[in-house]
Amino acid sequence: MMTVLAGGPLATVQDLGRTGQRASGIASAGPMDRVALQLGNLLVGNAEDKAGIEIAASGFSIRFEQDTWFALTGADCSARLDDTLILPWWTAPARKGQILTLQAPARGVFAYLTFAGGIDVKPVIGSRSTDLKGGFGGIGGRALATNDVLPLGHPSRPRRMADTGFGLRPRETRPPVKGVIRRPVTLRTMPAAEYNVFVPESRQTFWNTNWAIQRDSNRVGYRLSGTALQFSEPCELFSHGILPGVVQVPPSGQPVVQMVDGNTCGGYPKIGVIVSADLSRLAQVLPGETVRFVEVTQEEAVAAARVEDDYLRGIERFVSLAEMSRLAT
């Protein structure tokens, strides 16, 4: 187990979230950067859905109350285990009594800590994820606080504490899109149901604008600022089901992207849907930085998901081979 020495308003326990509950008004929760959590779990020999810690905005520290292995992925937080610098996208052993400290991210927004065996808090509605808006899951449905104790599960593949750590090259946060300047983070997006409700000029504005992330963006939604989008006619919709990645346009004309703690239903017109493979990239964009929507087809969206899955399977094979090599020595 571990003891939290310094928590913060945005450090929470998260696994891959709740599925199949949106019809009951329960958001998915889970990690903002899904791939970072999955990779962290793979690095410590866990299944991808084990619970870890998501940290954003502020410093964080824990004391290990047992020997274990951990991995640090996502944003670069200048982490130190006692006095030893720990690189991002790296896995390492920790001894009982050692203290791991993370600073505020120097690059990116969300960092992830995973541990061999995963954080073993009680599941709520099929997940250990913290739902801050609903106030359940994780540790009492809240952010982690000083003196919280986090139990660990049993590792599926124990490692010797004398083994050396290893890591990955950080993945690219800006996917290659042909013909697009790569300064803003490009988000592959499909037109949504109300796309044709917007005037032609606003449809072009949607694709051609570098949208800035506003400072009031959070796990519920990322608010964007740019040229206001205009409707061709008044558009009033009954509230209906929506998912993370949906780009809604309220009366202000400024788009809002639904994120993992986003509403399960809403009535604002939808102009686009970001492909699932790019939501993790959006999560790591700092306030004030810009994003750009790039139109793709449904077939291209499915292909992007396959590329992401192939990448994860490749890392899984790498870790398995590394484990086999270690056992052979």
What's the SSE blueprint?
Elements: E1 2-6, E2 12-14, H1 34-43, E3 52-56, E4 60-64, E5 68-76, E6 79-81, E7 84-86, E8 90-94, E9 99-102, E10 107-115, E11 149-150, E12 166-167, E13 185-191, H2 200-208, E14 211-213, E15 221-225, E16 240-241, E17 246-248, E18 256-258, E19 265-266, E20 270-274, H3 276-283, E21 290-295, H4 298-328
Parallel strand pairs: 13-21
Antiparallel strand pairs: 1-4, 1-11, 2-3, 3-10, 4-9, 5-8, 5-10, 6-7, 6-9, 8-12, 13-20, 14-15, 14-21, 15-18, 16-19, 17-18, 17-20
Summary of the model, kept short:
This protein is α+β, with helices and mostly antiparallel strands.
User: What is the terminal-to-terminal distance?
Assistant: 30 Å
The count of domains is 2
- The backbone outline, from C-alpha atoms, is elongated
- The count of helical stretches stands at 4
How many strands, what sense, and barrel or not for the largest sheet?
7 strands, mixed, barrel
Strand order of the largest sheet: 13-20-17-18-15-14-21
